[in-house]
Amino acid sequence: MVKKINEELLSDIINSLSDRKLTGYQVFGLLKDTHQNISKRLVYHYLYLALKKGEISVSKVTEEGKFSWGRFTEKKYYTRIK
C-alpha cells in the first residue's frame, strides 16, 4: 500500500530550514504544534524525500560530550538549498 505524500507538510519542513541549519528533532519541535498527527519518524522520512529531490542538504557534525554510549556523537544538520 502506497501512501500519498502530504505536500503541505513537505513544504513546511523545507521552509522551516530556510536560512538555518536544524536537526530532524528540531524540525519536529517546530512543526508539532501546527501538524497534529506528525511524528519524528515522519519528519525524518520527509527529510529523506527532500534530500532525494535535491531541495535540502545534510552535513554531519561530530560533537564531544558525556553520553551514555561514549564521548562523541554525530549529528546531522539539514539546510535548504537555494
Number of separate structural domains: 1
Instruction: Report the CATH topology name.
Output: Arc Repressor Mutant, subunit A
Helix content: 25-40%
What's the end-to-end separation, in Å?
34 Å
User: What's the gyration radius in Å?
Assistant: 14 Å
- The CATH H-level superfamily is Winged helix-like DNA-binding domain superfamily/Winged helix DNA-binding domain
User: What is the chain-wise order of helices and strands?
Assistant: HHHEE
CATH structural architecture = Orthogonal Bundle
Counting DSSP H or I runs of 4 or more residues, the number of helices is 3
Biggest sheet record = 2 strands, antiparallel
The gross shape turns out to be: globular
Q: β content, as a range?
A: 25-35%
Strand order of the largest sheet: 1-2
Low-confidence runs (pLDDT<50, min 5 residues)? Answer: none
**Average pLDDT number:** 93
Supply the helix-strand structural class. Answer: alpha+beta
**Number of beta strands:** 2
